[in-house]
């Protein structure tokens, strides 16, 4: 059953523009297209969107193996159907002109996000709802670059999007009830469980996850254990699917650094968020985790 989300003018959300086709944007695009939405995904170059298209097809390949075991025709038909709901391009302004909902999933940098939303605000129709997938930046700070505070909120998905079942739906004081309901309905329409949270640092999950991850890196920096032993300990001793260093490599160390730097800037006296020399060194060396082929651990280059 497809649950249709409503746009702020109470029309169903049918068309979605997703800006940023990296780890998160491609995952969100996949689940939105798979639930029957017409999706346009935008990134900065054709090469990047081509890579995103390949990664969505690869992920769909994993989905269909479970959905249609031993039926390769049904597998191919499903993938073709989902892909037919998706188009990929490089012009964000053009992409939002017919969107009911715009979801931003670009680099975790306030100025870059504001500059993007400011230009999209002028191009999108009045009814279009804007949402950011930010991990750590206050939604109100991003929304301030637009004139549609009542049609702005946060939709925070989790990585890997096709697998993780949660979406945090964030409202700022100005978010209208209609917009909030539309965002919540969209989260459900793409098959997720939604939770509501105010626009507080880290929302729910990252408010708890970031201090844990930071303490893991400090433990290693103090020479008390190796990353590998910490990861083994948290998987076998606490039942986590990934240890903190595996998860860091999976999230992307550049994104982790953006998150922690932003938090440090906003709360300079909070010792939970003091910087990590080890993280900064890895990022400076271009070791960004799984996506670059090396982070805390080496990976096969894709
Ligand atoms: C230490 C540094 C300190 C820095 C401090 C800074 C801190 C900042 C931290 C903040 C991070 C913020 C990020 C954010 O905003 C929020 C997040 O998203 S946090 C991340 C949340 N995600 C997780 O916690 C993931 C945990 N891991 C897992 O759940 C599993 O390991 C995973 C599902 C990824 C893989 O499972 P595994 O069993 O290991 O491997 P399999 O390959 O067998 O997969 C299992 C199952 O899932 C299917 N699958 C996996 N990936 C995909 C995909 N991309 N698409 C489709 N399907 C996929 C796969 O097919 C398997 O299905 P089966 O049916 O079981 O075969
Ligand atoms: N990596 C993770 O586990 C999670 C990340 N997030 C958040 O999602 C957002 C995206 O993160 P990722 O997908 O991991 O990053 P990523 O680095 O994989 O992808 C970001 C993409 O945005 C593109 N981009 C940058 N500026 C752009 C612009 N002006 N216009 C169009 N595209 C642009 C980049 O080319 C890149 O492809 C960030 O805000 C991050 O904090 C949220 C949940 C989990």
Briefly summarize what is shown.
The protein has helices at 23-34, 46-67, 72-84, 92-95, 110-123, 139-143, 177-189, 205-221, 227-238, 244-251, 253-266, 277-284, and strands at 15-19, 38-42, 86-89, 101-104, 129-132, 152-157, 166-171, 193-198.
What characteristics describe this protein?
eight-stranded mixed beta sheet; 47% helix; 302 residues; 12 helices; binds 1,4-dihydronicotinamide adenine dinucleotide; alpha/beta; binds ligand LJ3UWUTL
Number of helices: 12
- Sheet having the most strands: 8 strands, mixed
User: Mean pLDDT, rounded to whole units?
Assistant: 95
Strand content: 5-15%
Termini Cα gap: 36 Å
Low-confidence stretches: none
Domain 3-hydroxyacyl-CoA dehydrogenase C-terminal: 202-299
Pfam family, one: 3HCDH
Site (Important for catalytic activity): 156
Family: Belongs to the 3-hydroxyacyl-CoA dehydrogenase family.
In words, what does this structure look like?
Residues 202-299 form the 3-hydroxyacyl-CoA dehydrogenase C-terminal domain. This protein has helices at 23-34, 46-67, 72-84, 92-95, 110-123, 139-143, 177-189, 205-221, 227-238, 244-251, 253-266, 277-284; strands at 15-19, 38-42, 86-89, 101-104, 129-132, 152-157, 166-171, 193-198. By secondary structure, it is an alpha/beta fold. It is globular, with a radius of gyration of 19 Å. The mean pLDDT is 95. Bound molecules: ligand LJ3UWUTL and 1,4-dihydronicotinamide adenine dinucleotide. Residues 59, 62-63, 66, 135, 158-160, 162-164, 205-206, 209-210, 213-214, 216-217, 241-242, 244-245, 247-248, 251, 256, 259-260, 276, 279 line the site of ligand LJ3UWUTL.
């Amino acid at each position: 059953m497809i649950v249709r989300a409503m746009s702020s003018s109470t029309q169903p959300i049918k068309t979605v523009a997703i800006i940023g086709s990296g780890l998160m944007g491609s995952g969100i695009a996949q689940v939105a297209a798979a639930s029957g939405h017409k999706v346009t995904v935008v990134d900065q170059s054709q090469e990047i969107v081509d890579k995103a298209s390949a990664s969505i097809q690869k992920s769909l390949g994993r989905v269909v193996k479970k959905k249609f075991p031993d039926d390769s025709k049904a597998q191919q038909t499903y993938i073709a159907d989902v892909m037919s709901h998706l188009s990929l391009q490089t012009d964000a302004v053009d992409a939002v002109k017919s969107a009911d909902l715009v979801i931003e999933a670009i680099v975790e940098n306030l100025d870059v996000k504001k500059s993007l939303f400011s230009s999209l605000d002028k191009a999108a129709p009045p009814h279009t709802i804007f949402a950011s997938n930010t991990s750590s930046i206050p939604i109100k700070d991003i929304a301030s670059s637009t004139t549609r505070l009542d049609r702005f909120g946060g939709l925070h998905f989790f990585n890997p999007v096709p697998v993780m079942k949660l979406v945090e739906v964030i409202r700022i004081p100005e978010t209208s009830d209609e917009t909030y309901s539309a965002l919540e309905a969209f989260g459900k329409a793409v098959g997720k469980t939604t939770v509501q949270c105010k626009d507080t640092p880290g929302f729910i999950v990252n408010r708890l996850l970031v201090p844990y991850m930071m303490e893991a890196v400090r433990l290693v920096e103090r020479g008390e254990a190796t990353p590998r032993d910490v990861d083994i300990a948290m998987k076998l001793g606490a039942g986590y699917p990934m240890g903190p260093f595996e998860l860091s490599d999976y999230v992307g160390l550049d994104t982790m650094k953006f998150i922690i730097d932003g938090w440090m800037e906003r709360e300079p006296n909070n010792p939970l968020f003091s910087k990590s020399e080890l993280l900064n060194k890895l990022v400076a060396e271009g070791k960004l985790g799984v996506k670059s082929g090396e982070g805390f651990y080496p990976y096969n280059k894709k």
